[in-house]
## 1
Amino acid sequence: MASAQAAVLNAVREPLSVEPLAVRDPRDGEVLVRLGASGVCHSDLHAITGDLPMPLPCVLGHEGAGVVEKVGAGVQRVKPKDHVVLNWVPFCGSCWYYVKAMTAEVFHRNGTSISQFAGIGSMAEFTVVAENACIPIDADVPLDRACLIGCGVMTGVGAVINTARVQPGQSVAVFGAGGVGLNVIQGAVLAGANPIIAIDLNERKLGFAKQFGATHTVNAGSTDPVSAVLDLTGMRGADYAFEVIGRPEVVTQAFMAIRRGGKAVVVGVPPATAMVSVPGMLLPLAEKSLVGSLYGSANMARDVPRLIDLYRAGKLKLDELITRRYKIAQVSEAFTAMEKGEVARGVITF
Ligand code: APR
Ligand code: ZN
């Protein structure tokens, strides 16, 4: 049994509590991980606002990287001291472990169990996850950079490369230039897209977007983003538009900003009760499609090492994503900064 300072959401919209929890030992097929870093992703904030319902109380965090402390019986993929990125959608027939990890009562407060966000719960000094949630990485990759690959980078880059399969010279519009949207932008750069049009309400975010390779930026607070995308794409509309915010009305804008035969890809997670509307006629008559992308349609065992190699080659920006670093006790500050639009990504380091 380990003890870990953890960030706990007790009830929707209540202040988080940072407190020591008991972390039980890893069982068959499970791994105890000492966290090195956990990114602050908007999905955690969606849980705080209640837009993404979670069993509460819950240890937040799902963008994590750390070092294996101890393994349960039968674990073969990793061993103690291995550095790992945590994967919140374990793969290859491991549903049994996944379900087990989701309900495995890892964290306890005075004998009462506390859930883990997405089977990870990385906003804690230690967590226990399914073996298949551990993607081993080389020990020389800084964990505060590596953790970003565990959600935002994979989700954004993968939406372009794996889900949409954007080709060189195709046009891309990105609605939302936050921690995930910036990675859609750098995925579009890797794919050779042109133009790459970034849309946000916040000038600071549009500045980051340029730094990450956007060729054009549009402030949706002062300019109609759909008209702006049409203007920049010969009045046709973009080949691909990505919604990376989670707002139903922006999904509609993304759909209106694509050309005939174009594709709107929804990466942001709208509130659980929200419906999305698009003009139905344009589905057949303009042959437009609206698709979703979860976790960048990733094969994590294949894609995490690829992204790390791209980082090492100077082709993937990770250092530039981290605007601020926090300690676990400052977790509420980190969410406030995200809500105020002050950071590309905030990272909690342990
Ligand atoms: N139009 C344009 N941009 C907007 C709008 C809008 N109406 N509303 C918000 N934004 C911008 C914000 O200014 C911010 O830059 O969207 C961005 C959201 O970024 P973050 O808060 O950093 O969120 P992120 O972690 O990138 O997650 C975005 O992806 O994976 C999902 O659950 C996640 O739904 C969330 C989304
Ligand atoms: Zn996330």
## 2
Amino acid sequence: MGGIFDGASSRRLLASLRDIMAGSGTGQERLDKIVSLIAAEMKADVCSCYVMRAGEVLELFSTEGLNKTAVHNTRLRVGEGIVGYIASHARPVALDNAPSHPSFAYRPETGEDPFLSLAGVPILRGSKVRGVLVIQHKDRRGYVEEEVETLQTIAMVVAELVAQSELVSPSEVSTTGDPVLLPARLSGTAMSAGLAMGLAVIHRPQLTIRQMVAEDAEAELERFNAALITMHSAIDDLLEAATLAGLGEPRDILETYRMFAEDRGWLSRIREAIRVGLTAEAAVQQVQNDTRARMSHLTDPYIRERLLDLEDLTNRLMQHLAGKTSGADGATQPDDMILVARSMGPAELLDYDRSRLRGLLLEEGTPSSHVCIVARALNIPVVQAADALNRIEPLDQLIIDGDHGQVFIRPAEDIQMAFSEAVALQHRKEQMYAEIRNQPSVTRDGVPISIQLNCGLLIDLPHLKASGAEGIGLYRTEIPFMVRSSYPDVQAQTELYARIIDEAGDKPVIFRTLDVGGDKMLPYMSGGAEENPALGWRAVRIGLDHPSLLRQQLRALLLAAAGRPLSVMFPMIAEVAEFDGARRLLDLELKRLAAQGVEAPSRLRVGTMIEVPSLLWQLPALLPKLDFLSVGSNDLTQYLFAADRGNPRTSTRYDSLSPPMLCVLRRLVDECAKHRVSLSLCGEMAGRPLDAMALIGVGFRTLSMSPPSVGPVKTMLRSLDVAALRGYMSGLYLGGDHSLRDKLKSFGKDHGVIF
Ligand code: PEP
Ligand code: MG
């Protein structure tokens, strides 16, 4: 049974460790000394070190307490036994009854059966697991945090021994099991659309920590404080630059990030580790390892994204401690670069030279992670794929297919050719779209079609001018809410909406009120899990149940517009009574502001989305109350066919270009015309050229789409003869087809429509 292991024990152990590292001996000799030292100081019956060898095998390299004959003979696969478990999960484990752990594997040659307790940590370097360090005790005992943290610190030192090729040859360390030069393909998740080709730049800002144990804790604290100050001012510079560049939400993200940098808990844990005797670098790294270990099993996407932000910050702090200002070294960046990272924060992405950055490949992250939001706004294709760092070497040729979530590593020449052609075609098309930007949006037979944009970030706004769109047909106000860490107050909302109106200039903007819930949960909003979130408490339902929430948003919109035109749209309205309820709240806010002498909007237009089919049977009662109606075809399709839009098994099962959907749409066109209500469609359909053609054939004259769709849709409509299409479609509505896609495509081809 060991005595109490505390901060003083940890300091003593680390001081001896420093002596071992400063002394002479081969890598193996030093490792043996380290292992004996740990066993003695931690009063452990066993201390063993396993090192990762080629083919993902963990070999026992040194032990105190197990049979010495097992050294270099006992081997475990990653995932095998508790040691393999620690390696595969890359996180520490502390067990008071190791044999009861599901991964326990008994290896008789080591003679380890009498040991009940085990604490082990991964030996990590960069993002890779290089081995595992474990201690074992015969008795059943718990481990204190200091013990695990001290093991983690020592593991960092051992990682350096491995990396400096003192234990295994460098070629073996870098071997991944695959012959390095063979082409490979990774299937992952598409996170930001587009194709990119370039050379791999491994984003590995974690620097080698040369010294783990400090001579003088006070001096280290000073060094840490100085680095913190320079980092803060560098973040302030970035914020400033983001403001100047009109980056909008990325700026908000950076601000959240700045908050992290001032987080007391984080800073005090680092300072404590320095007081225990670590160098500033080792302390920052240890706190990060510990945070990662404690948070890595959490699946909550919000927490995981915060973890990524913290990693970003840690890396940045390490750069400052090393006297560098950013992880992106301009001189070594190729002209066409694809960044490869385990994870990355938004600020780190902005460190790289935008003019050379072609794509991003992440091992971790979700489409809603901040770095992806920023990448999409910058039009950088992103794919997430596990194991990327193990398979890619710096400057490997890479192709990122952000449309299909594919990555081609060192692609063969024919694949490179095919992609170069696809990339070139993409560029040619973009040029063509730019050329028609200022041409009228009118069909071949003279029917004007209004193209509007779907936006959700300030960074999207420059597209309004660049694409030639006539206005914003859908501003998804929930996106700024989703990237924040708390609910923005009225003032913050007012400022944001005012900037949107300012930047849109004389082009109209339709603000959709908060459409959260379902797949768009706000991290700071309680609500609890729902069995059927798409049919659950979402959008205007939340606003009507929590009127103060909706009123605050409406107030902010009215304040932002003061004296200028404003259009407000409510999402997910299922019945007229809901529209009336929402409208009442708007009227209350109008009254309240009038009483305060705030100028009303010069023109207030109020509308709703039609996404829930029940509303189709209340159109005569609804339409007289509306200024406009916009079809949310994404949700309307989902509810019409009872097919979850987020489930890959059902989302493509039914086609939006089917008789039932087109009948519904045609009815909406007719009813809105009768009541003189403007009608538009703002679901994904509007941005797909073939679907947009059908919509125009049905009678839609306003389509709202994401910015990249404007060029393709405008090209299509300028080549379209609407009269011919209407005639052709009149025979299609009542048929029994599953889909009209092929028929419509044939029509387009026969009539020279450019898709
Ligand atoms: C829709 O449902 O079609 C729509 C535009 O809204 P969202 O995709 O934001 O749900
Ligand atoms: Mg919707």
## 3
Amino acid sequence: MKEMVLVVLVMLCFFRCSDRSESSLANDYVENLLERMTLKEKIGQMNQYSAGSNLTGPSGSEDGRYEKFKNGEVGSVLNLVGAEETKKLQKLVVENSRLGIPLIFSYDVIHGYKTIFPLPLAESASWDLDLMEKSARIAALEATASGIQWTFAPMVDVSRDARWGRVMEGFGEDPYLVSLIARAKIKGLQGSDLSGVSTMAACVKHFAGYGLAESGKDYNSVNIGKNLLHNVLLPPFRASAQSKVATFMNAFNAIDGVPSTANEYLLRDLLFEKWGYEGVVVSDWNSIGELVNHGVAKDKNQASVLAINAGSHIDMEADAYIQNLEQLVENGTVKEERIDDAVRRILQLKFNLGLFEDPYKYSDVEREKEIVGSTEFRGVAREVATKSIVLLKNNNHLLPLNGERKIGIIGPLAKDKDSPIGNWRAQGESNSAVSLYEGISNAYGDSVELSYAKGCDLSIGPNNFFEEVQIETEDRSGFAEAIQVAQSSEVVLMVLGEPAFMSGEARSRSEIGLPGLQLDLLKVVHEVNKNIVLLLMNGRPLTIPWAAENIPAILETWHLGSEAGNAIADVLSGKVNPSGKLPISFPRSVGQLPIYYNKLNTGRPKSDMVFYSHHMDVENSSQYPFGYGLSYTTFVYDNLKVESGNDGVTVSIEVTNSGDRRGEEIVQLYIRDVVATISRPVLELKGFKKMMIETGETKKVEFQLSKEDFSFYNMDGDLVFEPGEFVFSVGTSSEKLLTQRIEVN
Ligand code: BGC
């Protein structure tokens, strides 16, 4: 084996020393290696296993996996973390397998590795692309220092249904915003050079349609047409491919009966042919095996044929490729060029990551000690968290808290140090967040009198990634204490919402109100003290019609990560003026779902007659729309100008801070294509600018729109421009807009 390592190094040196471009160097290297691989070794590169930290110990050897690693039958690993552990396994593979091809270590680093940032959905509310790039950069710094080179993020599934537990993991309902955030995240993770020791391969998932699972039920079927596919679901994936994201992941779901893992149209026709994507496609966990459950394959053998022919290159945890592909190639069912294509891409990725040069460079114990969980990252986590908070309501300027001496803090999440860490927490430790109570104590110290009551429990029993969360629905014995606290306080902070594991994978809900006894608790407190600030902590939009009507101040604080309590206190105290805007609509009731701002007009939009598209028992509008979010100050929009010129259309507007404190505003531009060959949305976000505006200051904001902004995808997935009338709308949310209509040719 040592000989082989030497050959590889000499080859690398030969290629590097010659005067050729990096990419032809990589090609030569990969081709040379590929030529020397047996079929079995090639298929090994397409096999991915999950590992606990004891993989190289007894449990690994028990199921024979240990041997497979030594034989070069595994190409990548997920869920093994730590510089020491990854080095150990890497060494085993490099030193024992015939060709010594290094493994890639992968992991779900979704919103931070050790330092935990707000949930992706929460962070999206900041609309701050630089900051989101920065948090991804920190996640990559930490994860790579722990031996990881590949994360299964970002999730770019557009989602419109808050029942789906994984809305927490995405960037909301708007394809334009999701695309921009996807680009920022990819840049933060991958940087400009994948071979850098602190950059890592990103993976956009889940390709495609996963976010539109029927009735918001995870893994459920998706039945959509081509318009929705091309104009809503695919743009973030296309933008990611253009940003050279290293990998794609299949979705679990079927679209119109075709499971994504076996979807030739999505993978071969669109991704590879039309978009020219040259990276790697990994299956989702056992999604090749699940083709049998979908009923499109009778066994894993047939499932392997479907998946490889469609273009799924790596089999995550199904054991399908490793057990079947060799024989399938030998008997002519699968062409060897399919295997070569997959392996070429995988080796190329390994080359780009610099693993052939030094398979151990990511596994540096000293670097891990120095970087992972470094306190300097906490400042960024706090900044991102403050910017993710959305002020939903603030009657009579109840917020910021100003001079109140007696603050009551009530609710099952008030002292919870775990829920703000959220689901998909990577190496974020349980109970490691700054709780709301701690945040308030840190901010106010002895200057206020704090009293606290839990009021009720939220979850009883398990609250972890693997088990169903159980919610308390019986025990009201804590209500009396809550009433007492409320009676003796000038203002009450009610901290209510969902525990960490109530959103995330397999955490769909059919009702999305405040779980358990929390609404009842809120009502009894409200009876004795109306001065309530409701602090919502949750991983999805909730239906809160009663609170929206009766509670004077409401802040959406999501699951904000390690610095949650401090960030919320920054906003409550007025140290930070809230500026977040919702990246997803909050429905009034579950029956409205799916609800989203960029809807089609229908043939029967709102009218005075009964025969229009509506529910009889709820308004058509959402409770809080996309793009909505208040500030402690007020912004006045004026002087909208839309001008068409040779370079496209220029839209300008003046925004004045008419309140009494400086604040950041996110100015949003939407368009509507009035007449087209297919029905177009009533509003489509096409630009936004986030800026600080001083008290009394007026800022002029300008947007430049080009032909592409007025185009849409036809049924073949081609971008088309149809001249005609367009409506331009600019404002502070998707429902508060100034508009103008002009002809665009
Ligand atoms: C999820 C993926 C994730 C994978 C590996 C699956 O259950 O759907 O998003 O990356 O597990 O953990």
## 4
Amino acid sequence: MKNKLEKIKQEVVRALQQAIGSAQLDDLKVKYLGRRGEVNKIMKQIASLTEKEKKEIGQLANQIKSDIVAEFSKYKHVANEKTSNSFLDVTLPGEKIESGHLHPITIVRQELEDLFSSLGFMILDGPELESDYYNFEALNIPKHHPARDMQDTFYIDHKNAAGEFDLVLRTHTSPMQVRAMQKYGAPLRCVVPGRVFRNEATDACHEHTLYQLEGLMIDKNISIANLIAVVKEMLSGMFKQEIKTRVRPGYFPFVEPGIEFDMGCLVCHGQKCPSCKHSGWVEMMGAGMVHPNVLKAGGIDPNVYSGFAFGMGIDRLVMMKYGINDIRHFEGGDLRFLQQF
Ligand code: DAH
């Protein structure tokens, strides 16, 4: 029994020298010091010995047991070190720190701002919660005029002193035309990028929250030719290639004459797809010569000055630029979409 105890101790010392991780160390502990471990097996046999042997072997067994415990505590630290050392692979790539990035709409908005600043346009910002007056009336859309139906509006549940609902989520960036005229007078060159809202049923080309860029240029002798030149300059700056455009007559109460610009669909290149409503053309903007009533609302004399205005959907432009076929991706918050930019 004495020999057996000595042998167990030697075994433990050897096994600990070879152990390479805390898992192995735990296994060894169970094997030798556990309830049914080697040391306890001997302890149990002591009961059947003579009194003299009991004393002698008992003492030795206790001594060996505490030696083994001491061995384990010595090796625990060493075994842990072995684990980390043996698994350290210095060639593994480091952990990447995720950094944020711009939304595709912000990227394009900033490009547009740069383009228009280089043409001498101011960049203005306007309120998203807009008065009924600036959103409609100042733009030659009186109350109860059927043109109000052109834009599905989110009215704010708030009445003014006269008991009328007078606040809306702006349906377009055009209200800034009159605000800018009132503030800066003529001559004037500005663009207004911003978020607008429509009470729309959403699909691949309609969203309730979208982005527009309004443009306004007022001076003496401004004509539609200036408008077309500025739009063409913007498109070639944006897409770095010749873009097909077409101009159609369009009705907007705040311009006269009013036109609509379409551009050739860059998602399908004329093959017809859902983003161009299967027509090969994408409506890019409404535009026209600023209506005399709007100039007057802005405090500018229509007999002296004329101007053009345009309002463009930034979302559409981004869809064309990156070949995105569903407008709902922009507000969807899906990282698989967003991380591509
Ligand atoms: N505000 C119009 C809309 O959202 C777009 C528009 C049309 C803006 C003609 C203009 C314009 O400045 O001249 O539908």
